[in-house]
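ok so I'm stuck.
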Amino acid sequence: MAIEAVFLMPAVLAGALMLFEIVRMALIVVIGTLALETSLNTLRLAVSPPLNDRVFVQQVVTLGMVVASYGCLSPADVRVKVEAYPGLGEFGLGIGGQGSATKIPIVVVDVNLELDWITPVPNLVGFGGQFTHRYHQVLGNLYGSAQNLP
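replied:
not stuck anymore, here's the structure
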């Protein structure tokens, strides 16, 4: 019985460590989603935010995600890329119409989370030294008066 336990315990321990990694990864993905939504809502509720200023949007999203992540994310873990378009025509590569709704800015936000594993087991298995998750959000408030609607 003792010999079987000696051979079985490393496999059980490795399985438990991988389970912890998977649960932590799922928790980070959910917290990252909520943090991104919170930071984007902060940006939406700002009084006349400069949406065409990529650096401003990038800083607001990064800081908002770090603050709203309950200490799970640091600024080094969050990589934000922002693309700003002045209207639908530019966003759709010239396929937009010429109405007033086409001059409302559209912002595309890509966020990459890169976090190290907490145990060495995923690195030993071949998953690399960290895991990465990508978020993609398109912000475009297509509002207008009732007279402009078709």
